[in-house]
Amino acid sequence: MSGIILKNSLIDALGDLFSIVPLLFFTFLVIEIIEFFYFDKVSSFVKKSGKYAPLAGAVAASFPQCGFSIIASVLYIRGIISRGTLLAVYLSTSDEAIPVLLSVPEQYRLVLPVIVIKIFIGIVAGYVFDFLFPKRSLKLQPDVDIVQKGCCEHILESKDKKDLIFHPVVHTLSVALFIFLITFIINLAIAKCGCAESLGEHLMSNSILQPVAAALFGLIPNCAISVALVMLYIKGTIAFCSVIAGLCANSGLGIWVVISKNKDIKDSFALVLSLFLISALSGVALFLIQKFIL
After folding, report:
1. Would you say residue 73 has pLDDT above 80?
2. How far is the CA of 53 from the CAs of 82, 118, 254, 268, 285, in angstroms?
3. 118 close to 247: Cβ distance less than 8 angstroms
4. Backbone angles phi, psi at 222, to 5 degrees
5. C-alpha–C-alpha distance, residues 199 and 181, integer Å
6. d(CA 228, CA 38)
7. CB pairs under 8 A, 24+ apart, for 110-113?
8. Main-chain dihedrals φ then ψ at residue 81, nearest 5 degrees
9. CB count, 10 Å around CB of 139?
10. What is the pLDDT of residues 9-34, one digit of tens each?
11. Would you say residue 249 has pLDDT above 80?
12. Residue 276's closest CA among 202, 210, 212?
């Protein structure tokens, strides 16, 4: 029986993968072209936005790309943007979530709500945070040397035209591997539990604690986390509020740059804690809205 479960889980995972990869590559190709020509302009715009920086950062970060949260972390450490702006970027960015949703036609309806809700959370949190903590007390590091690499180890400031094809291919392969492994594991878990609903019960699908757990899971600085959150939702094992909470907390490698390069440990801890609390509370608020209002 276990052999049949493994075989069926593997076949289902491969089937999901082959149906996703073509659209996934096309999505990454379009993203790469836009990022290639406009990434520097967007970064410059956020730096010069002044009091509108949280708004500009949240909107800019909502565009699917793998490096803006890293750039924002570098700008923060160098004292160019505020804590509120950095949090707005972290909360708004979706890492690999949007490309994965765009590669599954049945999930197109989710793309806009995810983007709009995360931008809203990012803007509100950014301005509230800057209002409550307007001054920055940490020691600035304007000359810190940080190699700005994206999720696939490509240099974010590179302008080599070969990356227009090379990076989407590498990006597609790496995310496809994540999708396959995550889907395979989810399929196994569903088979062991009997159905997606049963697995959902194990994952506290009807509990207010699920978005809190998702936010904690989202703090892991890896783009595979956003893929896992989206695939768990697609498979019907976690709620929409939990996807939002997890994706808000998941800033890709950006949070790792702050943790590893920021010399002010207390400041880094405060940022991570703030990111978690805002993400978890946002998820809980959506849970309550879905349960008692909608």
Report:
1. yes
2. 8, 16, 17, 20, 26
3. yes
4. -155, 140
5. 17
6. 29
7. 110/240
8. -120, 160
9. 10
10. 777 778 777 778 888 888 778 777 77
11. yes
12. 212
Rg (CA), the chain: 19
Could you read off the pLDDT of 166-201 as tens digits, one per residue?
A: 777 887 888 888 888 888 888 888 777 777 777 777
CA distance 139 to 39: 28
- Give pairs for 227-233: CB < 8 Å, separation 24+: 227/96, 227/97, 227/100, 227/175, 227/178, 227/179, 227/182, 228/178, 228/182, 229/97, 230/96, 230/97, 230/100, 230/101, 231/100, 231/179, 231/182, 231/183, 231/186, 232/186, 232/203
Q: Whole-angstrom Cα distance, residue 48 to residue 289?
A: 37
CA angle 30, 34, 36 (to 5 degrees): 115
Helices (H), the chain: 2-47, 53-62, 68-77, 83-92, 97-102, 108-132, 163-193, 196-202, 209-218, 223-234, 240-249, 254-261, 265-292
d(CA 86, CA 46): 11
Kindly state the DSSP code that residue 155 receives in the 8-state scheme: B
- The model's pTM: 0.84
Residues contacting residue 5 through CB under 8 Å, at least 6 positions apart: 188, 191, 192
- The token duo for 133 is 């903590």
Backbone angles phi, psi at 155, to 5 degrees: -75, 125
| Amino acid at residue number 73 | S
The contacts of residue 265 (CB under 8 Å, 6+ apart) are none
Rounded CA-CA distance 251/149 in Å is 14
Inter-residue contact 203 to 37 (CB < 8 Å): no
Q: Which two tokens stand for residue 88?
A: 């707005």
User: CA-to-CA distance for 287 and 293, rounded, in angstroms?
Assistant: 10
What sign for the dihedral angle of Cα 225, 227, 228, 230?
positive
How many angstroms separate the first and last alpha carbons of the chain? 42
For residue 260, the number of C-alpha atoms closer than 13 Å in the C-beta half-sphere is: 11
CA distance linking residue 249 with residue 108, whole number of Å: 22
